[in-house]
Amino acid sequence: MSENSKPLLDQAFAALLSDDDAKVLGALAYVQERGDARAIYPLLHALAKTNDRARQQKILSLLFEVKVSDAPAELARALDEPALRSVRKSVIATFWNAGLDASPYTDKLIACAVEGSAEEIFECLTVLENQEVLSEKAVLRGIKEISAAISKNTDEYKGAMLGSLLVELKRAWERIEKDVWAVLQPHAKAWATTALIQRCAAGSLEQLHPCERAAWDLSYLGQPHNPFAHDPTDTIRTERHAGPHLLCFQKDLRR
Description:
By secondary structure, the chain is mainly alpha-helical.
């Protein structure tokens, strides 16, 4: 975008908030042709201001076509904007409709789901279930936070949506377990060293590091034991085993 076009684009942003329908339509057309990530905030403010259904649909259609690299960060910033609270559902929906990567903002989306309406939870669910990869730490935090929200919830419809979101987060955790175990299993036999045998002879298998237990089972019992197979809602085991080990193993095995 040239320097000369910026003042015109700024004028278009300002015109989005006009009460003059002709000015708004002209501004929308200009933004559609020449806008970038900077257009997201003005469009959202215009959406929050208008009650005109046709104008709302036009703004949403522009938002849902946003593909620029800065768009996810702008949308995430908008989730914290009090003036845009009334259109937060549309902000969340834009991530999915525009096909944007929302995975870095999983924690923020979970927080919106806990605080928001059933409709907002549905949008969060739609966004998260369409992400290819989610952070294991964010998923575990989400499981804990959504579980806590369900225990305090009194709204039946919102409770049902929170339950659906919890199911999706648990599925995401299962996918993470499978991915890590797929990397871990080929290396398990190599970890069955003399030192490991000595440790097994000296103590209980339950005292072994989960990876060492996997190596023992695979090498000497013929059946691999998945050290990450546990209920992700079990806070103590999650914190002691899954989180630290997943990060450690992923880092070590990729060296």
